Amino acid sequence: QVQLAESGGGLVQSGGSLRLSCAASGRALGVYSMGWFRQTPGKDRSIVATISPSGVNTYYPDAVKGRFTISRDNANNRVYLDMTNLKSEDTAIYSCAAHESYSGSHYIEFALNEYTSWGQGTQVTVSS
């Protein structure tokens, strides 16, 4: 099973930018659909972005579309989330997760419960 570790969170002003990184170890990342998720106290974890194993296909919910970009570097076992024009409602703990894909290299996994490996999370706080 792949192990994941996030970094790059922190405090940023509204309108600012951050780049989150997810480093994978234990297995090659190229067979996994990857996702970024976020959670705030009292709320369910929600999807922020997903990317297929190949990196060709991505998905973003409307709340972050046009502001967030997910990318991956399979050679270096890393996934990134570039966040721009951050808003106070983006404040959350952000986690990366992996789903081992048997559906092809362009497959995106949307179901949160299909992701079986999770990082510990990194806090992002956006001040208004």
Can you give a write-up of this model?
The strands form two sheets. Strands 2, 4, 5, 6, 9, 10 and 11 form a seven-stranded mixed sheet that branches. A four-stranded antiparallel sheet has the order 1-3-8-7, with no helix packed on it. The model has no long low-confidence stretch (mean pLDDT 96). The protein has 128 residues and is mainly β. It has no helices and eleven strands. The radius of gyration is 14 Å and the shape is globular. A hairpin with a 6-residue loop joins strand 4 and strand 5. The chain starts with a strand and ends with a strand.
Q: What is this entry, summarized?
A:
This protein has 128 residues and is an all-beta fold. The protein has no helices and eleven strands.
Task: Describe the structure using short key phrases.
128 residues, mainly beta, seven-stranded mixed sheet, four-stranded antiparallel sheet
Blueprint (SSEs and pairs):
Blueprint (H helix, E strand, L loop, with lengths): L2 E5 L2 E4 L4 E8 L6 E8 L6 E6 L6 E2 L8 E6 L4 E6 L8 E9 L16 E2 L3 E6 L1
Parallel strand pairs: 2-11
Antiparallel strand pairs: 1-3, 3-8, 4-5, 4-9, 5-6, 7-8, 9-10, 9-11
Number of helices: 0
Structural class: mainly beta
Rg for CA atoms: 14 Å
Strand content: over 45%
- The rounded distance between the terminal residues' Cα atoms is 39 Å
Amount of helix: under 10%
What integer is the average pLDDT? Answer: 96
Task: Based on Cα principal axes, name the global outline.
Answer: globular
User: How many DSSP-defined strands?
Assistant: 11
Regions with pLDDT < 50 over 5+ consecutive residues? none
Largest sheet: 7 strands, mixed
Q: What is the string of SSEs from the N terminus onward?
A: EEEEEEEEEEE
